[in-house]
Write a structure and sequence with these properties.
This protein is an alpha/beta fold and 339 residues long. Helix content is 29%, strand content 21%. A hairpin with a 4-residue loop joins strand 2 and strand 3 (48-50).
Length: 339
């Protein structure tokens, strides 16, 4: 996939409401196989579509792209050995050592692409229309549908659903919405009306844990207010929940357990950051480990050429690094690497 195919895939992922990262090569040092302007899309689950370099660069870019998606902050990477860049690496860039047999190097810009939040409003009341208008002003992707037109295909686990049928098929709308398992499900109505709806659905056999996820009444409790203010209260609750991390499944929301905004990504030089330790024999295998020869972070799996030495399992980015270790283990099996 390259060129227009990458752009087409970006459009398709955006249409489906999926977050992803776009990686662009902005500089290369020969003989790297990539070229400036090369692009790739990386999804949150680590799938790469496109081309940004070979086996040395690809796993690093995938890992860093997943961090960019999670944090929502772009970063600029310099991939290579630190001595290739001398002492002139500007602040804000992240240097990641890689051991590439071609001795090439890459500068790659990775940016998050977060689709707009998806809000589905079920109902045709003036309040529902006001809520749709307010959400549109925030740039949210908003669907205003009649209760009879809503199906489980109208929303997914990343959507927010507000049932505003207000007595006209509330039970049927909530039952259908529960089956869609959205990130948020709210019912507009009094507590008494909400209890009656949920009680009816419980009698029909809907699981208590699913019904317990329904917000009744939807929105912040502002007392007796107008229908326009009800729309504001609902939108305010959705914004509050997304900012707190309670709706982490929605695009662009804070991660679960969010307490404070993270600092700018990439301001520390990764070449000086602590590396993941090798695994002591008998310990559970970590997700990542540091190549003891070049310092590159690699997946701690059988694909990374594991080698046991003196009770420690080491992992390598390439066969050449593993060979160097085999020839002189004492030069690389340091106490700091073992941890």
């Amino acid at each position: 996939m390259e060129g227009m195919d990458v752009l087409a895939e970006m459009g398709e992922l955006t249409r489906r409401g999926q977050a992803f990262a776009l990686a662009t090569v902005v500089w290369r040092q020969s003989p790297s196989s990539s070229q400036p302007g090369a692009r790739a899309i990386i999804t949150a689950d680590g799938e790469l579509h496109g081309w940004i370099g070979g086996a040395c660069a690809e796993p690093v870019v995938i890992r860093e792209a997943q961090r960019v998606i999670a944090e929502g902050t772009a970063r600029l990477l310099l991939l290579g050995t630190p001595d290739q860049f001398g002492g002139g690496v500007p602040d804000g860039m992240t240097v990641i050592p890689i051991s590439c047999q071609s001795e090439g190097a890459l500068e790659i810009y990775i940016e998050p692409v977060v689709p707009a939040p998806h809000l589905v409003i079920i109902g045709a009341s003036p309040m529902a229309r006001t809520l749709a208008s307010l959400a549109g002003a925030l740039g949210w992707r908003t669907d205003l549908v009649d209760g009879s037109d809503f199906t489980t295909d109208s929303a997914d686990e990343r959507s927010m659903v507000v049932v505003a049928t207000q007595g006209h098929g509330d039970e049927e709308a909530v039952e259908e919405a529960v089956a869609a398992r959205p990130a948020y499900l709210g019912l507009v109505g009094s507590r008494r009306r909400g209890a009656a709806v949920l009680g009816y659905l419980a009698d029909r056999g809907l699981p208590a844990d699913e019904l317990g996820r329904v917000h009744v009444p939807a929105g912040l409790d502002l007392g007796h207010i107008t229908h326009q203010e009800i729309a504001v209260a609902i939108l305010a609750e959705l914004v509050q929940l997304r900012a707190s991390g309670a709706l982490a499944g929605t695009p662009g929301a804070a991660p679960a357990g969010h307490a404070a905004a993270p600092g700018p990504a990439g301001t520390a030089n990764a070449a000086n950051a602590p590396t993941a330790p090798a695994r002591q024999a008998g310990q559970a295998e970590p997700a990542e480990a540091a190549d003891p020869v070049c310092g590159m972070t690699v997946a701690a799996t059988t694909a990374s050429r594991p080698l046991a030495h003196d009770g420690v399992t080491y992992y390598f980015c390439s066969a050449s690094c593993r060979r160097k270790f085999e020839l002189d283990p004492a030069a690389y099996a340091t106490r700091e690497t073992r941890c």
